[in-house]
Structures
1.
Amino acid sequence: MDLEEAFTVVDTPVHLAGQSDDALLRQIRRRKEFSAPRSTLSPATGLEKDIHLRPLEALHWLSYVTRPRYQDDVLDRYLWWGLLRYLGFFTHDYSHSRLPELALSDAGRRIAGNQRRVTSEEMGIAFGAALAARWFGETGAATLRTVVDIDVALDARFVFGPSTAVEHIGTRRPDYLLIGGDQRDPGRCRLRVLECKGTKTPGNAVSQLARAVGQLDGVTVGSRVPRGLATSMVTGESRTSYLALNTEDDDEPSYEVDGDTIDRVGNFRFLSDRVDVTAAEITSASIRASWAMLADFGGNLPAIQRWAPEVMLDRIRRRPRVRETFETPVGPVRGTSLDFGFGRERLVVRYGVAVPVDDQLSGDSAGELLEAQQEFADRLEQSRGSERPPASREVYSATADGTVFSLVRGERG
């Protein structure tokens, strides 16, 4: 597979086969791995049947969500290895639907053993986050802004920082905390959780999902179990598909956040004997720390220093990187890039943040940063569905909090 074909595969909307219905509920309840969550379990809103998405969106989420796990000495190697592996991992199959479905390419089929297991797990993260974004949007209540790794949060006793944005830790917990902007009130956010699995074998997916739903109530936020989504992604040789279920909350709360609150929780610490911690404080602390994650994606080291709590600074050390500003269909973006050679061709991979958001990351006003993110999210929503140039030499994906991931194909000089 050459670069042109790989670009076509990752940038073309595909038909992603899925199941989320009462029949699936009956299946998982019969599995020995099933442990019923405290909240009502039901088909996942907006994911009840097949969806369409670009694989590039999933690869973007993977690079964003997993980046904080890697120290600087292995980060470039991870980005290089992961990108090259997944850029040519899929091919198109037209035998099941009008839009292509994803099957494994010849290169993808050659991945075996432990590397195949890791690949399945990472595709579970990539597509699980993409499904969560669709799920948030389909509820009509919130737009997914940030995906926070709970394992990283719990190790550091904070969501990417000191002490806790997670009030109670269960022995079995979900993978990610999801922060969404309330569509009815930009000054409020909603918190949910995601547990995502991945396998190459369809027969394992139901058992994985049965375990996953039992983990959704392993965390409480503000004394409540947040609404949750469980997914299992199957990257089989001939077809890529998903299973999904969610827990319900008919009275799902939203939490007020503002610049003053976010500034106040810069040194927030939750102690076991404190009883006055509010969900709004927890939400604000999570958002503040997520900005350090955003700055890390764009290589903005001063902004990491500005927003990251001490524990995150101790855990994630980055060396200075060359930053540049580049134009994209969603506006100017500032960040870093990696350059790869493929025979006579070259691939440039860009990791960046929308310039208005990056400017505010470098500032001191949490309120102005919130406004910049809201403006970018609104502009991104307005641009969805616009015509995309065919056979472009640049493909890109953007998230509502301001990150932009792009691939540029060119000739070697």
Note: The mean pLDDT is 84.
2.
Amino acid sequence: MEDCTVVKVDSVNKQGLLLEVVQVMTDLNLFISKSYISSDAEWFMDVFHVQDEQGKKLRDQNVINCIQQAIGTTRESTPSPPKARAYTNNVSKADHSNEHTAIEMSGTDRPGLFSEISATLADLHCNIVEAHAWSHNACLACVAYISDQSSHTPIEDPHRLASIEDHLITVLRANMEPSISTGPFQIKNREVKTGGFLGGEGTMTNVERRLHQLMLSVRDFDGPRSSSEMNITERGTKMAVSIENCDQKGYSIVSIECKDRPRLMFDTVCTLTDMQYVIFHASVASHDGRAFQEYFI
């Protein structure tokens, strides 16, 4: 373990605690090379082997202190209800000095959609300060930060916010056909929410956390596999996900093998948590650029 730092977490367990701990490390751009997770009798015990961005052991005492403080705060905090709207003004840039209005969008993706969204916001005299979007299986999730075009201040007028929502919903629904738009589920999944000015300190993982939730709300997993995913398989890059049910023990085993990348564990734990699964045990390892993950849920 000379090339990594071992982080151990022992705490009273609560739903979502694992995700909060993993998010702390992801916020600090730490690479989790190995991890063992166990929760028995309402107790949470985790071991993480982490490295810095250069693949080295952590030697900066400030970073180590930050981990201890952040995880300690996470353990002591009481669960809070999920926020339905945006959550931060400081996103990926630490020097944001202005306050912005947050907008969430989810629905069906199509070519040219972002151009239409940008044009609509420009017509409504809005500046796009920052935007983050995911698209998968023809589903779209987007978190954007806007300000008033003339004053560069957050937009707080409820009537104007309602107008922005209505215009963007019209854009998202522009490709709806009668054959697919008659059901309430289809309409409900084309959503726009404005958050007004929301205070607080945030990071890129807060945005990605919300994007995960938005993609789940539009059920991006229901669609067919994209051609890009098929091409990865055809090029010989092994990518496998299997689920084994253990009825006698009352849980299922989710096994994942794929190319390793930063934030992979965060994305996996996000997905399982958002689908309301409890992770009882888990083991994660990385070797020669490959990731091997096993979750008992």
Note: The two ends are 29 Å apart (CA to CA).
3.
Amino acid sequence: MRDIPVIEVEDLRKTYASGFDALKGVSLEINQGEIFALLGPNGAGKTTLINIICGIVDKTSGAIRINGYDNVVDFRKARAQIGLVPQELSTETFESVGATVSFSRGLFGK
């Protein structure tokens, strides 16, 4: 039996009102214990992808599951699985990573 991926994205698409396609059929699967890096130039869709996974931005189409929870149908359960530290967040210089993530989870609903 296969383990449920921590994050599963299937054929994710995002088209903005301007007609710009930020994401064109992105699919990925991240399993527990894996280290995953999201790399690309400015405008490649990295932030859009993260924001859609976290439920901050609406997708145009596709499916996202967090620990098996659909991020639309089971929004609260999916969202409770995520700890997001936004790039704009300022913290104390000597704050621990754990404290920063804990603080950001409080900002975003957990």
Note: Residues 7-82 form a domain with the Rossmann fold fold (CATH 3.40.50.300).
4.
Amino acid sequence: MNKRITQNIFEGINPVLNEILLQEGRWQDFHSTFLVHLRDNLKASLIDKGYRVGLEESIQVQRLFDKPNTYYSDLLISQSPDVAAIGQAIISAPQSVATQTLPIPEAINLQTNLDIVALVIRRREDNKPITWIELLSPTNKLPNQAFYDYQIKREYVIHADTCFIEFDFIHTQPPMYPKLNAYKHGGHPFHMSLIIPRPDVYRGTITLYHFGIADHIPNITIPLDGDDIHLLNLNAVYQKAFIDSLYGLELDYENLDLSTYLEHDRQYIIKRVAEALHRLNR
């Protein structure tokens, strides 16, 4: 019988879950789950300090300073109380004949590889964006062409005097910064970056964090308005998201696929799993 463990048996990122999410194309589920938990954590801490924290469409960076828009459908089809009588008349009318049928993506240029959301901290009094937070998806990283669109977006945000935080938990693709070694070449599997474009983008700083399979996710200091800061326990956010979303119940620790990890990390994962299963069987 497969052994399921609700708690995360690793100190930080669960590498078994990561492997499944990336290999099975399920990253978007985690992406949304993690950002919702992060939003709730930050909102609880910052709401009394004059900030709004919300999920916003990542592709709408060009409207960074606009007020949120409400969109309505061009035509709303609803059912009235007398719909049955109307329906009888419609049935007797001549039926239209379709002249062409196309796949939806072809017909409307549907873009399926864009991130759904980013997290934005805004100053409540004037809605000014203060800090933009991204959790990278595989499509944001090389060799995907969307990498270049993402780079342009990031540059736009920091030129708008908005701090930019980036979480990169994807060990199977190269880091976002070319001077960093890829994991498969001995570099760290996970990265975080904090860009503070103050006093401007040319005199600002970037702080990089790197961590491994056996490490906690580091705390990160989030810059707010002026000299305000907030120390975020990101590891606690991850662990809560893991438990609340029942990811542990999806993991089969007795049948591991660790093909994307380096040998020393594979050995650590196997050892950690064996210890957890031993405790479970006692």
Note: Confidence is low (pLDDT under 50) at residues 67-87, 89-93, 110-115.
